[in-house]
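TICKET: design request
STATUS: open
ATTACHED STRUCTURE:
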């Protein structure tokens, strides 16, 4: 079983457990991309918090793309690659 397939299966089961629709593969990849950038550009422990905040914002009615963009806009762009400011 590939890691992506395991992730997709786990995500579908977790969503069902929480009585939610599973996110699309596109949305999943977009969130993972933003939290990876947060982990490298802000601080590693900020990554799951960023995902949580995006989820709360979307749950409250925010557009998913706008929520991801707002969080991404807070990532310092002048930090050296791989280093938190």
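STATUS: resolved
RESOLUTION: sequence designed for all positions
ATTACHED SEQUENCE:
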């Amino acid at each position: 079983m590939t890691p992506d397939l395991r992730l997709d299966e786990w995500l579908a089961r977790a969503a069902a457990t929480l009585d939610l629709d599973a996110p699309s593969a596109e949305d999943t990849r977009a969130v993972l991309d933003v939290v990876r950038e947060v982990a490298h550009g802000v601080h590693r422990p900020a990554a799951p918090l960023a995902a949580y905040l995006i989820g709360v914002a979307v749950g409250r009615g925010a557009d998913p793309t706008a929520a991801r963009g707002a969080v991404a806009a807070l990532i310092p762009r002048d930090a050296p690659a791989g280093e938190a400011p």
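CLOSING REMARK: Residues 3-73 form one domain. The chain is about 65% helix and 0% strand.
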